[in-house]
């Protein structure tokens, strides 16, 4: 009895998967490549002694509304990046720029005063600055002992 090698079948399957992946990533027939239904803009969070600054890269939202919400220790911003150049008669050979809803929720590194938000937009970057909230500081002092020191006290 002769056994048949399964490797040619795996190689053929691998090639088909590669072709499918290329079509998804490169786009075809004027369709865009894979874009998430909700875009998550790349974001930096910076803490200074007086404020928390969030900078998000979102090109093409000038003149549009962005919703900003602060709840407890989280900041959420959302909006929509619309394609102002879109026309039904256009037929794209390649479309890589993603449009649609965007949203991002971030953990804030400090308590902030959400009533004093300063928002600006320039060069494709959304900047959200939040002053840190005045908070009472509590100092705690503890004595650190080595493991095993407890047994000697008993």
Description:
By secondary structure, the protein is of the alpha+beta class. It has one domain: Immunoglobulin-like. Helix content is 16%, strand content 31%. It has a four-stranded mixed β-sheet with strand order 1-6-5-4, with no helix packed on it. The protein has a four-stranded antiparallel β-sheet with strand order 2-3-8-7, with no helix packed on it. β7 (118-122) and β8 (125-131) form a beta hairpin. The protein starts with 6 loop residues before the first helix and ends with a helix.
Outline the fold blueprint.
Layout: H1 7-26, E1 38-39, E2 43-47, E3 51-57, E4 66-71, E5 74-81, E6 100-107, E7 118-122, E8 125-131, H2 149-153
The H-and-E topology, N to C, reads as HEEEEEEEEH
Radius of gyration: 26 Å
Q: Describe the biggest sheet?
A: 4 strands, mixed
Mean residue pLDDT: 82
Given helix and strand content, the structural type is: alpha+beta
Keywords:
flat, 4-stranded antiparallel β-sheet, 4-stranded mixed β-sheet, 16% helix, alpha+beta, 31% strand, 8 strands, single chain, Immunoglobulin-like, 2 helices, 154 residues
Care to give the gist of this entry?
With 154 residues, the chain is α+β, with helices and mostly antiparallel strands. It is 16% helix and 31% strand. The protein is built from two helices and eight strands.
């Amino acid at each position: 009895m002769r056994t048949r090698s399964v490797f040619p079948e795996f190689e053929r399957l691998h090639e088909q998967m590669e072709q499918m992946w290329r079509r998804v990533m490169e786009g075809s027939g004027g369709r865009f490549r894979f874009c998430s239904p909700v875009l998550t803009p790349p974001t930096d969070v910076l803490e200074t002694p007086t404020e928390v600054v969030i900078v998000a890269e979102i090109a093409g939202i000038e003149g549009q509304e962005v919703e900003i919400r602060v709840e407890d220790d989280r900041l959420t911003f959302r909006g929509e990046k619309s394609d102002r150049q879109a026309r039904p008669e256009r037929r794209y050979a390649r479309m890589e720029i993603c449009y649609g809803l965007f949203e991002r929720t971030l953990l804030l590194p400090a308590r902030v005063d959400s009533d004093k938000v300063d928002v600006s937009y320039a060069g494709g970057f959304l900047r959200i600055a939040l002053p840190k909230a005045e908070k009472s500081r509590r100092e705690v002092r503890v004595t650190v002992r080595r493991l095993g020191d407890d047994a000697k006290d008993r």
